[in-house]
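quick q for whoever's on today - can somebody do inverse folding on this one?? i tried earlier but teh output was garbage lol. tokens:
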């Protein structure tokens, strides 16, 4: 008799509180904390699928012992001669490793040149009368560090960059009457260090528009073909580039 009463009580409880009977059926779906943790882990472990590629074009400027305004090469944009501006172009591939970091490979063809005759007449370079041209082929690997959106939340992305590369070049040095002069111990290829800053914007069609400016530090004083006896600095050069590209991934 007591067993029959117990069975009746259990059935009454099930009919009175139907959610009790289905509680175990829904327990697997009621784990928001574990599920969100799994999602975070999945997002963290996913490799980057964002790739940018495109072309660049712009100006190139010589910062060497020939031309400019001082006795030796100056690591400054103000030492570049505007009338000796040349042009450069190339391509790039960039992989985003996260919101703040990207790796970029660049290949650039450029020409640089300068002339002592374009320096101020009262400078030490003017009476020397040298001028040169140099065709450059530069390939580099650069790391871009982006400004966090928490600091400046605007659509364009601002970044600084630096890296390592190598340079193939063959300077041609002449005097004031266009006689070709022997060049001094030109090393090619040679390492270069690009350093600068840039900005780019990606529209809703995944088109990328950008601008960057960057110095190239070298470990040679013969980018112009001339090793200045009293030169205190190695030669360098400067690129200003506009770019257009396309983004794959999201």
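ok took a stab at it. sequence:
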């Amino acid at each position: 008799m007591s067993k029959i009463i117990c069975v009746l009580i259990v059935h009454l409880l099930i009919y009175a509180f139907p959610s009790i009977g289905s509680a175990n059926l829904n327990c697997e779906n009621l784990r928001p904390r574990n599920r969100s943790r799994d999602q975070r882990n999945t997002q963290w472990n996913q490799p980057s699928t964002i790739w940018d590629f495109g072309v660049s074009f712009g100006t190139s400027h010589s910062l060497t012992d020939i031309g400019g305004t001082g006795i030796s090469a100056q690591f400054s944009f103000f030492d570049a001669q505007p009338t000796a501006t040349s042009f450069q172009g190339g391509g790039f591939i960039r992989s985003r490793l996260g919101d703040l970091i990207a790796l970029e490979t660049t290949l650039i063809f450029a020409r640089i040149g300068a002339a002592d005759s374009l320096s101020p007449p009262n400078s030490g370079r003017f009476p020397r009368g040298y001028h040169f041209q140099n065709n450059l082929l530069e390939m580099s690997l650069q790391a871009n560090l982006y400004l966090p959106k928490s600091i400046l939340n605007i659509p364009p992305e601002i970044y600084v960059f630096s890296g390592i590369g190598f340079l193939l070049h063959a300077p041609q040095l002449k005097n004031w009457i266009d006689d070709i002069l022997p060049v001094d111990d030109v090393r090619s290829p040679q390492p270069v260090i690009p350093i600068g800053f840039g900005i780019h914007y990606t529209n809703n069609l995944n088109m990328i528009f950008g601008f960057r400016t960057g110095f190239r530090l070298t470990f040679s004083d013969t980018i112009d073909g001339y090793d200045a006896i009293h030169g205190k600095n190695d030669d360098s050069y400067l690129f200003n580039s506009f770019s257009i590209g396309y983004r794959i991934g999201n």
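fwiw Strands lie at 51-63, 86-96, 101-115, 131-146, 157-174, 180-181, 190-202, 207-218, 236-248. also The chain has two domains: 2-41, 50-248. so keep that in mind when u check it
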